[in-house]
Design a protein that fits this description.
Elements (H helix, E strand, L loop, with lengths): L2 H40 L12 H31 L3 H6 L5 H29 L11 H22 L6 H14 L12 H7 L3 H14 L5 H15 L1 H11 L2
Helix pairs in contact: 1-2, 1-4, 2-4, 2-5, 2-8, 4-5, 4-10, 5-8, 5-9, 5-10, 8-9
Length: 251
């Protein structure tokens, strides 16, 4: 794999994105914004303070994390599958000097880049609403890239093994939805049964939420352990998208 050729794949996706970003951006931005308003202001009117914070301020850092996650996941599930199967973009790219490893690396980096784009955007919006207490939240941006790599790796692994595009509904319903709901975004996990908390600790979104919430509050509580976990999982999952995509694409 050559970094330069992987960058060319990334550059191709960036060029397409800059031409279509208005529709893509609106779709990905609307959902986290609606969650923030509906849950933070609507439900927040009936919820007492959590850990000494108004409810909307408690969930705001988690919305940064979840928007970063979904940006990478949408890009590397439906986006990757459509480029591979329907648009035949993969076939066109592989007809150039770019090999399959370069292509998959470019897909992963692009998915992580989308995490950063939406992480920055939601951070700005939340800061404008006065829901961020510290400039330390800027330190979360590089970590959205690393965590975005995890979500991109998981998504491409699934894109490599699904029999058809309809099967992504299982991925979103059985994996993404529980991940979203039980990651500590909307309520402290210490109120849940111990088994739920134990499982959540092994999920990437939980650690990104922990990091965003700590930096938003101006502390480093739990950040180091979550960073080490994220780095370890990025490395652990790294070989699998390449191996599984090779099995799918090369007879």
């Amino acid at each position: 794999m050559q970094i330069k050729r992987a960058f060319r794949v990334w550059q191709r996706h960036w060029t397409v994105y800059t031409k279509l970003y208005k529709t893509s951006f609106a779709l990905n931005f609307a959902e986290p914004a609606l969650y923030l308003v509906a849950m933070g202001l609507g439900l927040g009117a009936f919820v007492k303070e959590i850990h000494g914070q108004p409810y909307i301020k408690f969930i705001a850092p988690g919305i940064i994390a979840s928007s970063s996650m979904f940006a990478a996941v949408y890009e590397c599930t439906y986006g990757t599958y459509i480029r591979m199967t329907f648009q035949k973009t993969f076939d066109a790219i592989l007809a150039t000097p770019v090999n399959l490893d370069d292509l998959i690396a470019g897909e992963l980096i692009w998915g992580a880049t989308k995490s950063v784009i939406f992480g920055i955007t939601i951070t700005i919006v939340i800061a404008l609403f006065g829901l961020v207490d510290s400039y330390l939240i800027l330190l979360a941006i590089p970590l959205t890239f690393l965590c975005g790599l995890i979500f991109a790796e998981i998504s491409i692994i699934f894109a490599a093994i699904v029999p058809g595009i309809d099967s992504f509904s299982y991925f979103y319903t059985l994996f993404m939805t529980p991940l979203f709901l039980f990651s500590g975004i909307f309520f402290p996990l210490d109120a849940m049964p111990h088994v739920v908390t134990s499982i959540a600790v092994f999920t990437p979104l939980y650690h990104l939420v922990t990091i965003c919430r700590a930096f938003s509050a101006g502390t480093f509580s739990g950040v180091v352990c979550s960073m080490l976990w994220i780095i370890a999982v990025v490395s652990l999952l790294a070989p699998f998208p390449f191996r599984l995509m090779r099995k799918r694409i090369i007879p």
